[in-house]
Specification:
Number of domains: 1
CATH architecture: 3-Layer(aba) Sandwich
Order of helices and strands: HEEEHHEHEHEHHEEHH
Strand content: 5-15%
Shape: globular
Strand order of the largest sheet: 5-6-4-3-7-8
Bound molecules: 3-methylbut-3-enyl trihydrogen diphosphate, magnesium ion
CATH superfamily: Decaprenyl diphosphate synthase-like
Number of helices: 9
Distance between the termini: 43 Å
Length: 282
């Protein structure tokens, strides 16, 4: 990465944020949140569309359609509040195992979503990245995704990552293959393969690790989502189904995150010391 790229990247992540976040309909304690307490990178597993619809006697596809409304609200809120990066799990490699009808309803919605939102997202300076195997998507969807990425490539606002045809293990295998290829070509020595080099081959290269993972629908698992990037993420589970998730619930998750004590293996209040010093050995 050139210096210009580095400063642009840092500028993107630390772009000016509002003084505080206010949501008028939020309950009193959740009214404001200081920007320094915000996660830099939020990941969301948008789950529960099917159950939302079934509970109303509707087809599962109606739940997915309702889910796109929540999606709009959460993307706008992230942009309004100055979140640096937002990664959304929209379709996993395992989701191909659903019925043909459901998969085609999801693919149709995806196309409609990109066609109707791209102008506004681009206007808002949002940079879209697809996490996952775009080549493995049907042609019309693939074209829409490639266009969205190309059109917003130079944008410097919210980094919006949408995981589509995404599998976490597949992402790790892909990174290993890309490094192996570079090693065979003499571009990198095997001993130079460290965590930074590995990170650089992931779909999320150049983004910070996930600080906060939110999953709706009450399920408490990661379902093959961002296994590398989530290692130190704080996790917040909301029992509501995704179509019922809105910016007030989102703000509550951010509040929960803000009061967590992140230690990264250290001890609170203690300055980190050098590990394995000679003194330790004696
Ligand atoms: C999440 O909702 C959307 C996708 C996986 C595409 P689900 O469709 O998984 O909804 P539930 O979990 O069956 O209720
Ligand atoms: C995870 O939800 C995938 C997405 C939200 C796109 P699933 O509904 O597919 O996950 P499981 O099957 O409950 O683990
Ligand atoms: Mg589900």
């Amino acid at each position: 990465m050139f210096l210009d790229d580095v400063s642009k990247f840092l500028g993107d992540l630390f772009r000016p944020k509002p003084d505080h976040i206010t949501v008028s309909s939020a309950p009193a304690p959740a009214k404001t949140l200081l920007p320094e307490k915000l996660p830099r990178h939020v990941a969301i597993i948008m789950d529960g569309n099917g159950r939302w619809a079934t509970g109303r006697g509707l087809p599962r596809s109606a739940g997915h359609a309702a889910g796109t409304e929540a999606l709009r609200d959460i993307i706008r809120a992230s942009d309004d509040w100055g979140i640096g990066a937002l990664s959304l799990y929209a379709f996993s490699t395992e989701n191909w195992s659903r019925s043909k009808d459901e998969v085609s309803a999801l693919m149709g919605l995806l196309l409609r979503y990109f066609n109707s939102e791209i102008d506004e997202l681009d206007e808002k300076n949002v940079k879209i990245t697809i996490l996952g195997d775009v080549e493995g998507m049907p042609q019309p969807q693939r074209e829409a995704l490639v266009n969205a990425m190309a059109r917003t490539a130079d944008n410097t606002g919210l980094r919006l990552n949408i995981a589509l045809n995404y599998g976490g293990r597949a992402e790790l295998v892909r990174a290993a293959q890309r490094l192996a290829r570079r090693a065979v070509e003499g571009e990198i020595a095997p001993e130079e393969i460290d965590e930074a080099a590995f990170s650089g081959e992931l779909y999320t290269a150049h983004l910070p690790d996930v600080d906060l993972l939110i999953r709706t629908s009450g399920e408490m698992r990661t379902s093959n989502f961002l296994p590398w990037q989530l290692v130190y993420a704080e996790m917040v589970f909301d029992s509501c189904y995704w179509p019922d998730f809105d910016r007030v619930r989102y703000l509550k998750c951010l509040w929960e995150y803000a009061r967590r004590d992140r230690r990264f293996g250290g001890v609170k209040g203690q300055a980190p010391e050098r590990a394995n010093s000679e003194e330790d050995a004696n």
